[in-house]
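Per reviewer request, we include the raw input and output of the structure prediction for the construct analysed in the revised manuscript.
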Amino acid sequence: MASPEASAVNATGSTPPSPFPDTSPYTFHWEMFLRPEVLLFDAQVIFGALTVIWLGAHGSLRRPPSAAPPESEDKDEKKSKEDEQFTEGLTASDAIMFPILAGAVLIGLYYLLEWLKDPNLLNKILRGYMSFAGIAGLGKLSGDALEILTSLIFPSVWSDRSNRLYYVDSKRRSQVLVDPTTNQAMITDKKSPFPGVFSRVPLPTGINRLAWEIRHLLTEKWTVRLAAHGVGSFKSQIKLNHLLGFLVSIAITTAYHIVQWHVISNILGAAMCYAAFGMLSPTSFGIGTAVLWGLFFYDIVMVFYTPFMITVAKKVDAPIKLVFKSSSGYSMLGLGDIVVPGLVMALALRFDLYMFYKRQIQYQPLDASSRQASSTGQAATSTTELQFRQTKAPFVESEGQWGNRFWTTKLGNLMPNPACGAVGAATAFPKPYFYASVAGYTMGMVLTLTMLQVFNHGQPALLYLVPCVTGSVWLTGLVRRELKDVWGYTEDGSLDTKDVVVTLDADGDEVRKPARDNSKELKDNGKGEKEAEKKEEKLPEEYDVVLFSIKAPRPKPPKTE
């Protein structure tokens, strides 16, 4: 969640001029909404907020508990995927603690500003603090944006007008054609790493080799190791785009302190929202709804009954809000108005992905098991219970798939080539709950901006956003008759089981919730103990005092057959 001082607020610095003569007190006219500049300004606010939420929600996608870990040839990468855990999310008590903590921080800032008289010192401190958070968020946002750009330039698959799929084979440094009718693959004479019409452009040997090297450099993962004796060690895999994104974030943050342009401040605020979607999770729709309604009442009190919210929002000049300016005035949208409902909207998108893979679960029948039941004075009866083994479909990472979707989608179509199932599973799965929440958020923002014009006073955006967003999600579950799945979905790891035996009822639903498979954990614990004993028996003669290394995979020569 964004910092409490950035919580929900919508206020105007100056009201757009009315086409009618000025009167006192302020009089609202509905004709104001027909003015093009007012409509364009409101559309800018709504589109800006929805863009941040859409990017953050898709950036937070991860393997749902209804999908199996993806298969990988790299043992280290496979192990990291198997050890993947969902983000530790919110709890039910946060519905009470969040409003209390947010109110305490907001009131503290208000009286601090009153005591300082001049907010410049506090603004400098807040800008410095928020800049560090902005570097982390902007680094992730920039890295992911560069990943999408790389996938657009160097996709792994593309489709021609005849729906034939061409796969880019880095090992052979050529492109492989897959016939959609026979599903047979053949190596083509295309030696370029570029897709579509660009693959037909003849390139000199040196330039073509350089293009393959650049593709390898941008798509392969690097291994980063950091260790300090007596402190611990860290090992992770990153890509060059993530390092470049970190450098971009430092440059933009430095420019913000020099120029202090509100557009750069908006970029930093949007980046922090983007990072928050990936780090925080409401855990379940029940907890998320409770947290939102707790902040709903907090927002009403702070905006309508106290001067705290609007005063702090107007005096604090830091990337804790998005500022939209026009020739007639400006409007402020707190980061809390984006992050708080956006967390539930991101959860709705992950729930869509969960339901997509849940429908692909296959149940393989096992031998029937019989149980004997007897009672006094009656003959023994035998009941037969059919059991099935639950097999989940492997998860397809969305990383690098957006470029594949662009190059496998015909002009005028919205869906990619159906023959390329991985692209559809990663980017084009059905999203009814997410789209419903987007519609609810749009309705809430329209109500907020309307009331802003009607009353000429700052409005608590969560007053309108919370009922619209939460109501749209639960109403969608009611209409689709999936309220049981909506209520039961959680990201605490309890649903993450693998190849368990379940019992199905007449409708094909599981009648007994499978227990968590702990056999692998026990096996791993035993294996870890044995490895620890071996390490104790033979200690190395040398150890690393301080270690920092970045290793890149060496490009292999093209494979020939």
